[in-house]
Design goal:
265 residues; mainly alpha; 52% helix
Length: 265
């Protein structure tokens, strides 16, 4: 009798050990999906535990600890920490982007791949997930509508049609080193603009760089554009309305003449 118990006890030890290591558990669908994403990513050679050192067992770790990308990418992390986004993230502000907001968590593509969230084609949307919003802009007292104003510019228009040599958000603002334009470290600070535009426009002068990039057609921001645009909205709008009225009246007249032919005279 006691022999059986001893045997059972011995069998339990490796059983428990296996189960606690997560080995005996089939991976959950979420874990399998993360595994597939990782296998296609720039990190295909990493193990789960490289980013989740305490393991990915769904029972023992229902909630993952924050991942420190900077342990393997210290250069990028150091620059990011100085930036406006990094400074705020360090204070625990959940509105600013972390590494994973811009690059993804498991599906991190090589930056040269068109699939990457930071590729030439995709970056404007990645930044604008936050910077188009007027609610977020108001909360921080910064201008919003950065995507629509970018699309309205020459660069945005060309980028939308697949031209990859024009400027995207990062060509002007930087990537990990983003600062408010009033900060002298910002690549779009008035003092640095000639150099920033000059990367691609070698003959850029102070005057060339002075033009507004994000043109918001409002009276406070760009009065000229606002006046011209408003004029044309009303001008074309009234014209279309008058045409429509003309057609309606004409049809009405024709109809009446058909019903009462004597109304012709
Ligand atoms: C390159 C780093 C990296 C690797 C490698 C990695 N993960 Fe993650 N994982 C993350 C990040 C980043 C998060 C988001 C956690 C956070 O908010 O900081 C995360 C979160 C998770 C979560 C929690 C919630 C969710 O929606 O994803 C699971 C589950 C997960 N990882 C499973 C895995 C598994 C399984 C593997 C191995 C196949 C793996 N991870 C490998 C970076 C990584
Ligand atoms: C605001 C968005 C954003 C954030 C936040 C961000 N990155 Fe990047 N990252 C980019 C862009 C844009 C590129 C450049 C893509 C290119 O060169 O075409 C880049 C490039 C990279 C590269 C490729 C090598 C290089 O430096 O060009 C690595 C590695 C990288 N980032 C890691 C990180 C890590 C680690 C963090 C967090 C500490 C981070 N990134 C945070 C946008 C971001
Ligand atoms: C355990 C180390 C490790 C961790 C942690 C790690 N990475 Fe990487 N990362 C690598 C390696 C290795 C490569 C491949 C480098 C290469 O291909 O030259 C890489 C490549 C990348 C690239 C592509 C760089 C390029 O030149 O295209 C990006 C972007 C990137 N990592 C971002 C991240 C982000 C974001 C996190 C956190 C979610 C992270 N990494 C966490 C080791 C790591
Ligand atoms: C997850 C949301 C998010 C993403 C993605 C994001 N940002 Fe931001 N960004 C913010 C928030 C929030 C602030 C305001 C921080 C503060 O002022 O405390 C900010 C601040 C800024 C500022 C400074 C504004 C000022 O005058 O203070 C610039 C410039 C900027 N971001 C550009 C970018 C660019 C370019 C990208 C893409 C490469 C990007 N951001 C991606 C949320 C985001
Ligand atoms: C051709 C260069 C250029 C491109 C491309 C560009 N910006 Fe800007 N951006 C500027 C300049 C210059 C300013 C400051 C003066 C102004 O508003 O025109 C600015 C201002 C901003 C601000 C206001 C905060 C500040 O620092 O004054 C944010 C936020 C911003 N841009 C985000 C973006 C995002 C997001 C994209 C991509 C969708 C983008 N920018 C594309 C040059 C550019
Ligand atoms: C990453 C490269 C790059 C950067 C940085 C850049 N541009 Fe451009 N820009 C281009 C390309 C490419 C074209 C289209 C080619 C052409 O017609 O000259 C263009 C076209 C233009 C045009 C319309 C066509 C023309 O030549 O008159 C203007 C205006 C312009 N850029 C202004 C600026 C300003 C201002 C800055 C700095 C705030 C800037 N660009 C930064 C690449 C860039």
């Amino acid at each position: 009798m006691s022999k059986t118990w001893t045997l059972l006890a011995w069998a339990l030890i490796p059983g428990c050990a296996l189960s606690f290591s997560g080995w005996s558990q089939p991976l959950s669908p979420l874990h399998q999906q993360r595994q597939r994403e990782l296998a296609q990513s720039a990190h295909k050679n990493l193990a789960c535990t490289d980013c989740h050192p305490r393991g990915v067992d769904p029972v023992l770790r229902p909630k993952m600890e924050p991942v420190t990308c900077g342990s393997c990418h210290p250069a990028e992390a150091a620059v990011y920490q100085e930036s406006i986004h990094g400074q705020e993230a360090a204070k625990g502000n959940p509105d600013v982007p972390t590494c994973a907001s811009c690059h993804g968590s498991h599906a991190v593509a090589p930056v040269s791949s068109p699939e990457s969230r930071v590729s030439m084609e995709n970056l404007p949307q990645t930044c604008s997930a936050c910077h188009e919003s007027l609610a977020l802009a108001q909360k921080y007292g910064i201008p919003g509508r950065r995507y629509s104003t970018y699309l309205f510019s020459f660069h945005g228009e060309a980028n939308r049609f697949g031209q990859v040599t024009v400027a995207n958000c990062a060509s002007c603002h930087g990537t990990h080193n983003i600062f408010p334009s009033r900060d002298p470290r910002s690549t779009v600070n008035p003092k640095n603009l000639v150099r920033t535009c000059g990367q691609c426009h070698p003959n850029a002068t102070r005057n060339f760089a002075r033009g507004k990039v994000h043109v918001e057609a409002t009276p406070e921001n760009s009065k000229g554009v606002f006046v011209v645009r408003t004029f044309y909205y009303w001008f074309i709008g009234t014209l279309v309305a008058l045409f429509a009225l003309h057609i309606v009246l004409d049809l009405y007249g024709r109809g009446r003449r058909r019903v009462q032919p004597e109304a012709k005279r």
